[in-house]
What we know:
Blueprint: E1 2-3, E2 15-16, H1 22-25, H2 29-35, H3 39-46, H4 56-62, E3 67-68, H5 76-82, H6 97-119, H7 128-149, H8 183-197, H9 215-228, H10 232-240, H11 264-271, E4 279-286, H12 289-292, E5 298-299, H13 302-308, E6 324-327, E7 333-334, E8 340-344, E9 352-362, H14 363-376, H15 380-392, H16 407-414, H17 419-434, H18 441-447, E10 452-455, E11 461-464
Parallel strand pairs: 1-6, 2-8
Antiparallel strand pairs: 3-5, 4-9, 6-7, 8-9, 10-11
Helix pairs in contact: 4-5, 6-7, 7-8, 9-10, 9-14, 10-14, 14-15, 14-17, 15-17, 16-17
Keywords: Cell outer membrane, Membrane, Signal
InterPro entries: SusD-like_N (IPR033985), SusD_RagB_dom (IPR012944), TPR-like_helical_dom_sf (IPR011990)
Family: Belongs to the SusD family.
Amino acid sequence: xxxxxxxxxxxIIPVLTLAGCEDFLSTEPDSTRATxxxxxxxxxxxxxxxxxxxxxxxxxxxxxxxxxxxxGTDDRTNRGSFLFEAVEATVDQQDSPDSYWAECYRxxxxxxxxxxxxxxxxxxDQYNPQKGEALLARAYAHFMLVNYFSKFYDPQKDNSSPGxxxxxxPEKVVIKKYDRGxxxxxxxxxxxxxxxxxxxxxDGSYTVPKYHFNRAAxxxxxxxxxxxxxxxxxxxxxxxxxxxxxxxxxxxxxxNTTYESLSPQELFNTYSRATENANLMLVETSSNYGRYVxxxxxxxxxxxxxxxxxxxxxxxxSASWTFPLYSQGDNxxxxxxxxxxxxxxxxxxxxxxxxxxxxxxxxxxxxFNRAEAYAYQNNTAAALADxxxxxxxxxxxxxxxxxxxxxxxxxxxxxxxxVRTGLINTILAFKRVEFVQxxxxxxxxxxxxxxxxxxxxxxxxxxxxxxxxxxxxxxPQSATISGIEQNSR
Length: 489
């Protein structure tokens, strides 16, 4: 593990101007529809069919990746999520659960508008790529919503608890009543949209494919979806389609080569670029996370980093991760990843909003999902091969002869003779350090029902077991006007 300490990170904040698809959304619905008459224009509309809000702040703060540092940036979402309290915020507050809810449904409304337009054209086959993207975008937004605002899906149960409204048509009235359905029904509809939309995706329809559901990202989404459903054959099938005929290894982030020589600012400027092979899909999110990731009161201190990075001990030899750990003041630690950039309200405006470009699907996740599926299929050799591929890109001064994960090294580290259990624990440990400060750990905590224990600076212990209703985010109060029942907490 490499630890570099510095006192302050200066952010490069490029000024961007919103244009393109915003022109469509700033007009009345009828005039908007009148101006969209070509596949290209539908594609422009679909650039906003993704939730431009971030889940990272509340997702990370609920996980076991954070500690109460006693001091630091006091943020309502960061604080409430750590304490497992309902976050009292509005849909306008950046990084809040309410904001994410609202943005997901705004994205759904755009996808539904696109699908409605396509359903009425005389040449629908020419719009197949746009239809595919709209279906995938609709499925993704609902998938993320149901995983946060409902009890987590368990394929061994009936999943009859309340889901979230699955909206499939444009709203024609000011206030429409919605039914939440069940978690099972939401998953069934996500799967329907996913399977219908994926074959229609065409990368040639985009100027920058990674800002859309391109084929690699669509297959990565399918692999994630079927991992939750525990359909491991399909996880492997879709993971292998991310780079058909190619190698996942060649597209992993080069942390122990190229990245190792980069400064913090260079890492910030590189991590979320569309040119990075590891980034399969990027979403622009309105977020303060890039500004406060290190200084949040409830964040990663050095003791937490030691816990998170301890998985390097699973590897043979004297291997250590090459992730560059930095500090931003006392007890405020981060890995330079998600940077802030500033979007002005207009070209000449002095005010605007901070944004973060968020990698929502990556090659690393695909590799881990495939390894986990191999483990459950008792294909130990294939699971180990994927884990060692990962190690080869993450260990400093990597030595293929000694820096190896084996069933023996796993058993020694975890003290278990059950091979599958050891493999799963290794995958979860590696994922934890890989995605630290990206909000991904929460999904594994939910999938495996891991207990979370937070200790406040004052000594109070907050224990949240697998069946605790506080693990389910509260439905926004503003949604009750549409008849959507809130969760019991």
